[in-house]
Design goal:
The protein has 10 helices and no strands. The protein is mostly helical and 171 residues long. Helix 8 packs antiparallel against helix 9. 22% of the residues are buried. The model has no long low-confidence stretch (mean pLDDT 84).
Length: 171
């Protein structure tokens, strides 16, 4: 009985020391694993801050930059997403090895930032790889007709009513 307790204690000690030493020896991998867990749980804000910590230690890691750009895109922070995307989108070898949907996502970010001609280019690149995707076809049509979308808004002028107060009114 005493032998079993000693053996169990040694096994648990070994597992504990192994886990701790892995975190001490390579803290970056530990941070990446932690950030990936948050990303998978849709906690993009926490994941983004952890990915930023990783990039402070490994600033040339395009996989982490991609994850960070996705965090910003999913947090609806298109300016930050575009900034990070631009750091690796010109690397053709890296981007071609990734899921082509990232080209579409980069086009969406550019479109959100009002860069329609550049967004069209990325949508076209995505369309070459995935020609049957209806989303990209609709995006291309909408970009072509962007002037029509804004044309209607020029006909109207918005004025404040005299019945409104300068304060924040309710009901």
């Amino acid at each position: 009985m005493k032998t079993i307790r000693i053996f169990t204690f040694i096994c648990f000690s070994f597992l504990f020391v192994r886990n701790i030493s892995a975190q001490v020896i390579n803290p970056v991998k530990s941070l990446i694993r932690k950030a990936d867990k948050y990303f998978d749980r849709d906690a993009y804000g926490v994941a983004a801050s952890l990915y930023l910590e990783v990039l402070q230690k490994e600033d040339d890691n395009n996989d982490i930059k991609l994850k960070l750009a996705e965090c910003y895109r999913l947090l609806n922070q298109p300016e930050d997403a575009e900034y990070i995307y631009r750091q690796f989108m010109d690397n053709a070898n890296f981007i071609d090895a990734q899921d082509p949907t990232y080209k579409y996502y980069f086009g969406l970010v550019l479109e959100q930032n009002g860069k329609y001609s550049e967004a069209r280019e990325w949508f076209e690149l995505y369309k070459e790889v995935v020609p049957d995707d209806k989303r990209v076809l609709n995006k291309l049509i909408n970009i072509e007709n962007i002037a029509v979308h804004y044309q209607d808004s020029a006909k109207y002028e918005i004025e404040a009513l005299r019945i409104n107060s300068t304060k924040s009114d309710f009901a």
